[in-house]
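Reminder: ligand-aware prediction takes two inputs, not one.
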Amino acid sequence: MKTLVICGSRNPDGRTARAAGAVVTGMKKAGATVEQVFLPALKLERCRQCDDGGWGLCLREGRCVIDDDLADLVEKVRQADALVWATPVYYSDVSESLRAFGDRLRRICTQETGRLSIKGKPALGVCVAGGGGGGSLPCCVSLGHLLTTCGFDVVDMIPVRRQNLEAKLLPLEIAGQWLASGGR
Ligand SMILES: Cc1cc2nc3c(=O)[nH]c(=O)nc-3n(C[C@H](O)[C@H](O)[C@H](O)COP(=O)(O)O)c2cc1C
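Here is what comes back for the chain with flavin mononucleotide:
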């Protein structure tokens, strides 16, 4: 199985990457190939709401008019059999880089061609709160809603907080193993 991990943290050594890394370990144990992307390292503009009505090429053709890293990343999403979305919790919500990507992806997925090879694909979410530890649950709801709107089959959402990160590494690994074994 081919898997893609989309990380909304800029820190490859941070808590979000650590939690995602445990999922990766599990997926690899199940024989999956894993590619990981860190969204802040990519060139991803925010949506321009092109037309007066707020829509754009996304609604008509299922693609975005902006020439940046979006198209390549959407292609990676299409090529993957399963996805892991990992975000640090910011203001009890997903990170800005994940929001920017998700906001544009959901528009592409509104159109039939755009959602090809995305609709129904299994997706696992991980939300890591590293401050006071609050906000991981509303973040899970927000990320789950975003992924559902895109058309993914959201198979699980895992809240993590700084205080339980160590304790959650094994459950995250098991979740990864399960996801890469079919995830349903
Ligand atoms: C702008 C901002 C907002 C944050 N909001 C929250 C929050 O609502 N709850 C929380 O527990 N931590 C919050 N934090 C802390 C992050 O969740 C913490 O830094 C996170 O673990 C970073 O993950 P990383 O190590 O992958 O970068 C916030 C951090 C930033 C920078």
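The chain has one domain: 2-179. The pocket of flavin mononucleotide is lined by residues 9, 11, 14-17, 88-92, 128-135 (CB under 6 Å). We will return to this case in the review session.
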